[in-house]
Amino acid sequence: MKTHIDSIIETDGALILGAGIAGLFTALKLAPMPSIVLAGTRPGLSGSSAWAQGGIAAAMGEDDSWQSHARDTIVAGAGLCDPAVVNLVAQEAPARIEDLIAYGAPFDRNTDGSLALGREAAHSLPRIVHVKGDGAGAAISATLAARAAETACITLLEGFHAVELAMEKDRVTGIFARSGLGPDARLILFRARAVILATGGLGALYAVTTNPLESRGEGLGMAARAGALVADPEFVQFHPTAIAVGRDPAPLATEALRGEGSVLVNGAGERFMAALHKDAELAPRDVVARAIHRQIVSGEKVFLDCRDAIGAEFPHHFPTVYAACMSAGIDPVRQLIPVAPAAHYHMGGIASDVLGRSSLPGLWVVGECASTGLHGANRLASNSLLEGLIFGARVADDVRGQLAAGAPRGLPPAPPRFASPAPPHVLREAMSRDVALERNAQGLRAALGVIGRLETVSSEPALLNMTAAAKLVTAAALAREESRGGHWRTDYPETQKPATRTFMTLADAERIAATDVQPRHASK
Ligand SMILES: Cc1cc2nc3c(=O)[nH]c(=O)nc-3n(C[C@H](O)[C@H](O)[C@H](O)COP(=O)(O)OP(=O)(O)OC[C@H]3O[C@@H](n4cnc5c(N)ncnc54)[C@H](O)[C@@H]3O)c2cc1C
Asked: Pairing between strand 35-39 and 154-158?
């Protein structure tokens, strides 16, 4: 592939792959250092960021404290959070919200002008800043994209499909990206002194997901194929309440609906969460998602009942969810919303230190594609946009400290738009069947077999990036012989002590796939 490069673009500044909230915020924080932000889709509408509904967690309320936010994060993380990372994130959160306000993010406010704070599952008190009820992601993405577009040192390039990291010796020096399709496709090498991956998650590797189809784990796969250390890849969070109307991706019914008192009922109209957890519908996500999954596996249907708790306020308070329901012929003011769990968020990712550095020199990682140790085995609601902001600022500080910059040279013409292709059906089916909410050795081995067969029939780098990401999730899930947070093994239901994070390379995953040997586990 590298012998057919059509053009080379160089910058003395930074190259950021991804124009979700993590990528755009990093670019703004890097300014006045020049950066190229390269993305598949249009900044402001790109990635999971634009679809986020609930908002961002930060201890902004008078009764709140960063210690309380940190405590809730650690409890949700089921023993695998890195406390130092949790503390720094909880402490820096209010400052990053102030940054967003300064960029123009239109957070909802109370009549006295203070920030309106919402409550979500497993938070001890209301601490979610939000926009127009359930429109935080769209509004913040649009705000950051507008600021980036008017910032002269930021070059936004959409419509590129990155397929491989460029390396010189052991250092990452750029990214190979395609523009156009078929015979018109061009391969461009973007070279930079600092390369930052902000490529989001991998939900679209699953057949049922809330993520856009561009969330295919390709950044994780690219970094892993270049030798980067990966952390906790087995931990995938399933959102309990995707709206089950057969759409791909599945629209989301935000957790805030349950925060407002909506309840889950089965086909007989019976609530089932109160008997399973003291916090009932507001139990941690993995608990609620598994409970719904078990109802469905036992032949029940599950519904979210918002009629008493929200009722006529629905269209005004939750316009995004309301529109999704109405377009499927469901009026949530009067009717039950059918729900099912869907792949939603990847806690694992490219291993990162507190400055966002990966294990590869020249490569920084930020946002959902990174694993900083914040989320542990189960992400606390609304901590993911926050992580992108906190580490976006930290990566920018670190990169600025390392480089003295100049502008990019020889920018390419804008490529035509392309639609994000879904990963192969057989891969998505295998991930949803065998690597989802409940896992066992037999199913995980079967999934590794599907992944291996796909790899033998194609040398297409985009596919190999996806299969690398899928293999890391599956091999680490096979090696973790316990149940914890988002990872539930029906053949190993106990939680082991001490809690250990997974750190592995793609070569480790290949070995597990071949021989079932254990990955390196580092004690916390
Ligand atoms: C429906 C939904 C609701 C959510 N609600 C919340 C919430 O309320 N609060 C919260 O904190 N979190 C929420 N999340 C999670 C949160 O939105 C994501 O974790 C976060 O937006 C990830 O941001 P990011 O910038 O890391 O990645 P993304 O926003 O996913 O952006 C990834 C970027 O990388 C680009 N990219 C990826 N691969 C390639 C490639 N090969 N070539 C070129 N470009 C590429 C994409 O085009 C995109 O620009 C929600 C997620 C979903 C799906």
From this structure: parallel
What mean pLDDT do residues 333-353 have? 98
Q: What are phi and psi of 332, to 5 degrees?
A: -70, -15
Measure the CA dihedral 9/14/17/23, to 10°.
Answer: -140
- Confidence at residue 413, expressed as pLDDT on a 0 to 100 scale: 66
Residue 342's beta-bridge partner residues?
239
Strand partners, 39: 158
**2-46 confidence digits (pLDDT tens):** 458 889 999 989 999 999 999 999 999 999 999 999 999 999 999
| Chain centroid, CA 447 distance in Å | 22
Per the document, the length of the chain is 524
Catalytic residue among 96, 178, 191, 285: 285
Ligand 1 closest atom vs CA 120: 8
Residue 319: per-residue pLDDT? 94
Contact 85, 374 (CB under 8 A): yes
Alpha carbon dihedral 129, 131, 133, 134, in 10-degree steps, equals -100
What is the residue-averaged pLDDT of the chain?
A: 93
Q: What is the pLDDT of residue 185?
A: 83
Q: 439 pLDDT band (50/70/90 cuts)?
A: very high
Give me the residue label for tokens 């985009």: 462
CA distances from 522 to 87, 165, 213, 264, 501 (A): 21, 27, 33, 39, 6
SS3 percent helix, strand, coil of the chain, rounded to 5, is: 35, 20, 40
Residue 384 CA: nearest ligand 1 atom is 11
Q: How far is CA 308 from the centre of its chain?
A: 32
Q: Amino acid letter at 60? A: M
Kindly state the greatest CA–CA separation across the chain.
Answer: 65
Nearest atom within ligand 1 for CA of residue 54: 8
Task: Report d(CA 193, CA 36) in Å as an integer.
Answer: 12
- The answer to whether 486 touches 380, Cβ cutoff 8 Å, is no
Ligand 1 in contact with 336 (CB < 6 A)?
A: no
Ligand 1 mutation pick, 199, 257, 346, 369, max ligand atoms within 8 A of CB:
199
Residue 231 tokens read as 């952390």
Q: Is 450 helix (H, G, I), strand (E, B) or coil?
A: helix
Cα dist from 116 to 62, 111, 112, 134, 313, whole Å = 12, 9, 10, 13, 17
Distance CA 19, CA 28 (A): 11
Smallest CA separation from ligand 1 atom 5, residue: 52
Return the pLDDT at 523.
45
Cβ–ligand 1 contact at 259 (below 6 Å): no
CB proximity list for 9: less than 8 A, separation 6 or greater: 36, 188, 189, 190, 191, 408, 409, 410, 411, 412
pTM for the complete prediction? Answer: 0.94
Our answer to whether residue 271 is catalytic in this structure is no
pLDDT value, residue 281: 94
Parallel, antiparallel, or unpaired for β 128-129 and 337-346? unpaired
pLDDT in tens, 77-125: 999 999 999 999 999 999 999 999 999 999 999 999 999 999 888 899 9
